[in-house]
Amino acid sequence: MEWEEPAIILRLSLHGESSLRATILTQKRGMYHALVHGGRSRRQTGLWQEGSLIMARWKARLPEQLGYLTAELVRPSASFLLDYPLALTLLSSACSLCSEALAEREPHEILFSSLTHFLGALSVSPAQPPVALYLRWELLLLQELGYGLTLDRCAVTGASEGLAYVSPRTGRAVSEEGAGEWKDRLLPLPSFLYDEEAEGRAADWLEGAQLSGYFLQRAVFATHHRPLPAARERLMAALQRAVVASSTGHEGKERV
């Protein structure tokens, strides 16, 4: 039993003296775990990095076995981001969420395509990383897991304009008019989450991360009695620092 297709490396851990256990997200077959012989060798160090796009080759005697993995590097990701902490944190958060939230061997072609697009954009602009694009990707992850939010119209008035909040109970958008006296019980909805032309600013990103994080925790991780991945918590801390930096006029060249 064997197959070959594009994949993204999500997680790597040590296995024995020279090998690795790899978790990858494939284009058509979903998430796979496999062993990489000699993955820690000097010759393969540049290949086996989290976030890299590879052409993966998986082989096992039986389909249900763990299997062995070899690969060719298509596009590295982490190597472009070493000098850009926020970009590296975004990559780590995306990989951690996938590796901990997705069920093994369930296809997620749309999610794979979207993650590939995000990683490409991240590599092109690491100093000004696409935070808005990443947070919209988190909403897609929720949708792929069966917990998509409804952000195209107000749950109260039916209007598609003036959307400002999301119900923490239903995950549906609510307009300023529709919120009324209940607005203090709703979650803020930054416009960039439903408007792909909007990029938002640091304060908007933090609100967006709080929104998607709330539903990821409640709908996905809490059901398994687990917290959000540590990498996702580090992203929240980085966005909080970005808000402080923007309020004091010390953003610098990179959004950190």
From TrEMBL:
Keyword DNA damage appears in the UniProt entry: yes
InterPro entries cross-referenced by the UniProt entry: ARFGAP/RecO, DNA_rep/recomb_RecO_N, NA-bd_OB-fold, RecO, RecO_C
UniProt cross-references to SUPFAM superfamilies, sorted A to Z: ArfGap/RecO-like zinc finger (SSF57863), Nucleic acid-binding proteins (SSF50249)
DNA replication/recombination mediator RecO N-terminal domain boundaries: 1-75
Pfam (any one): RecO_N
Alphabetical UniProt keywords: DNA damage, DNA recombination, DNA repair
Function: Involved in DNA repair and RecF pathway recombination.
UniProt cross-references to HAMAP family, sorted A to Z: RecO
Protein family per UniProt: Belongs to the RecO family.
Protein name (Swiss-Prot/TrEMBL): DNA repair protein RecO
Organism of origin: Bombella pollinis
The organism's taxonomic lineage, starting at the top: Bacteria, Pseudomonadati, Pseudomonadota, Alphaproteobacteria, Acetobacterales
